[in-house]
Amino acid sequence: QLQLEESGGGSVQPGGSLRLSCAGLGFALEAYAIGWFRQAPGKKREGLSCISSPDASTYYADSVKGRFTISRENVRNTVYLQMNRLKPEDTGVYYCNTNRMSLGGRVDYWGQGTQVTVSS
Q1: CB burial class (10 A; 0-12, 13-18, 19+) of residue 42?
Q2: What is the pLDDT of residues 4-19, one digit of tens each?
Q3: Sheet of 3-7, strand order
Q4: What's the DSSP call for residue 23?
Q5: Nearby residues of 62 by Cβ (< 8 Å), 6 or more positions away
C-alpha cells in the first residue's frame, strides 16, 4: 500500500501564491511518477501536472502552464506544486496521485486532499 499525504492548502487572494506538498509515507516517492489533480466544486477531477521517474520530466495542463511548477525533493521524500498568480477558478481540493501495476492491473493511490480557496 502506497500512502500519500498532501499539505499546504489554504485561502489566498487572487494573484497570490501557495506551495503544496505531497509526502510519501513508508515508500520512496522518487521511484514513482507523481501527479497533481484538482477537483473543483461540482466538477470532475482534472489532471494539472505530473513529474516522471527517474528523469523528472514534467507535464502541465494548459490551465496552469506558466503559473504552476512541479518539483521533487528526494531527501524529504516530497513532491511540491508551487502555484503562483492564483485565480478564483483554481479553487478546489488538490490531490496527489501515483500508481503501480499489480496482477489485477493498474492501481491508483490518492492522498486525502488539501483545500485551496482563491477569493477576494
Answers
A1: exposed
A2: 999 999 999 999 999 9
A3: 3-7, 18-25, 78-83, 68-73
A4: E
A5: none
